[in-house]
Amino acid sequence: MSDTNHVSKNYKILVCSTDSQSEEHQDILIEYKLSIFVNGIRYVNLICTHKNLYELVLGNLYTEGIIGEISEIESIEILEDEGKAFVTLTNNDMFKDMIEATEGIRTVTTACGKQHSIAYYLMNDSDLTPLEHSYRIPFETVLSYMNEFQKSSEIYKSTRGIHSCALYNETGLLYLMEDIGRHNAVDKVLGYAMGHRVDLSKTVLITSGRVPSDMILKIIKAKIPILVARSVPTDVAIEMADKYNITLAGFARGAKLNLYSNEQRLLY
């Protein structure tokens, strides 16, 4: 039976080893398909987790370059039973012009779940600017954030299959978002930040997933100075983090992590 949040359901499984078999029950994540329509045009189908859908829609529109700020959205209506979200932009022609301008030049993301196409302009970093190095934070504080983060997801504890993303500032944890796809989890965090007008210039974002170039672009665009991953980045992600002054760390475990760029933000 599905849980009340439509996030997981319990299956009876057979646990096998070389010398035994036993029946157990395991919570399995539920895939939820959300179709997003913008100004009446089908924009994208997302395979996601049925949780924080408003933040997911808002964050996805921002990171994909459809909007630059929340004031460009007139309304968002989500029909959860139908798996549809209807977005109306204040500029009726803007989205149509974007779709026509990028027709035939799509880039497939490394997102978890069913792959989907994003507009080519997301992969173009020519309109981005490097961050300043003014924000500093103690190294031990970042480690404490990661250790707290790794204990925070109740869904992960029960399913072992969810991605998490959390935002911290000098006061500690602001909020944590979860999804079957690591890109979706990041979008939910950024959508929450937009909706609550969070100042991202003095924050640390922590993700459970690896960091490819399309994910680091989201962080650069949001102007988040520090990104810490439990997994590892790709070569292009490191190069972009270095170019735009993002402090990028990965393989964070216990009392250590790997620093790939802009270590000067961490105070020892």
UniProtKB/TrEMBL annotation:
Q: Where in the cell is it found?
A: Cytoplasm
What is this protein for, i.e. what is its function? Answer: Required for formate dehydrogenase (FDH) activity. Acts as a sulfur carrier protein that transfers sulfur from IscS to the molybdenum cofactor prior to its insertion into FDH.
The lineage, from the top, is: Bacteria, Bacillati, Bacillota, Clostridia, Lachnospirales
> Is Cytoplasm included in the keywords of this UniProt record?
yes
Sorted alphabetically, which SUPFAM superfamilies does this protein's record hold?
A: Cytidine deaminase-like (SSF53927)
Which organism was this protein described from?
Lacrimispora xylanolytica
Primary subcellular site in the record, as a coarse category: cytoplasm
Q: Which family does it belong to?
A: Belongs to the FdhD family.
Protein name as it appears in the record: Sulfur carrier protein FdhD
Q: Which InterPro entries match?
A: Cytidine_deaminase-like (IPR016193), FdhD (IPR003786)
Q: Provide the residue positions that the database annotates as binding Mo-bis(molybdopterin guanine dinucleotide).
A: 251-256
Give the annotated active site. Answer: 112
Q: What PANTHER family is this protein classified in? A: FORMATE DEHYDROGENASE (PTHR30592), SULFUR CARRIER PROTEIN FDHD (PTHR30592:SF1)
Q: Which Pfam families match?
A: FdhD-NarQ
- Provide the alphabetized UniProt keywords: Cytoplasm, Molybdenum cofactor biosynthesis
